[in-house]
Write a structure and sequence with these properties.
mainly alpha; 10 helices
Length: 203
């Protein structure tokens, strides 16, 4: 009997340790997310006004509260959607890294979260969708490989752009191949069309 009780106690103890360890890991992950987002928000603030803070670290510290609020928004969206907060935040960070403002990154992340939900994609694919959009943003024009990456996930970008331009999908591909489809137009058209058709799909 003593051996059985001992085994039960050991298993219970191991379960408690595992739960505590997972709790610490969750806290570390949250703090890392908050820190990364605050750093990028701080860099954005410094680009807008270099005199606002003495250095990047001070800017990041000042943005800590805003980063925490943003993660709270992502947590709420995660509760209402099939995805985790980390999935959503990872997409947001990719958008930040590629130069989207905080407001634009948040809007884009919301749109892509709805798209991912509507197309029954995995949470990890949120960042995979935002990545080629970010590459368009950084380059200033659409590359065919980025457009195809989006198409492969079921996002009808060629149809969206053709409709917006009043032309054919073949013509859109010609414009892309010639480097003539600007990213600002392409991203705005994609976001607006997705908001119109997919808004709220994740909740």
């Amino acid at each position: 009997v003593g051996g059985i009780v001992g085994n039960i106690f050991n298993k219970f103890s191991e379960s408690i340790k595992a739960t505590v360890s997972q709790g610490f890991e969750a806290v570390k992950t949250y703090e890392l997310l908050e820190g990364n987002i605050a750093m990028l928000m701080g860099q954005e603030a410094l680009r807008a006004d270099p005199t606002l803070f003495p250095n990047a670290l001070a800017a990041a510290k000042a943005m800590g509260g805003e980063a925490e609020k943003l993660l709270g928004t992502f947590q709420k969206l995660a509760i209402e959607s099939p995805f985790t907060r980390d999935d959503i935040a990872a997409g947001f960070r990719i958008a930040q890294v590629y130069g989207f403002s905080t407001a634009a990154a948040q809007r884009l992340t919301g749109v892509v979260t709805d798209l991912a939900s509507a197309y029954n994609l995995q949470g990890s694919e949120i960042k995979d969708i935002i990545l080629p959009i970010g590459q368009m943003q950084a380059l200033g024009r659409v590359q065919l490989q980025d457009a195809k990456q989006l198409s492969q996930r079921g996002i009808l970008v060629f149809d969206i752009w053709a409709k917006k331009l009043g032309t054919t999908k073949d013509k859109v591909q010609e414009l892309i191949s010639a480097g003539l489809l600007e990213s600002n137009f392409a991203i705005q058209a994609l976001v607006e069309d997705s908001e119109k058709l997919m808004s709220g799909a994740a909740t």
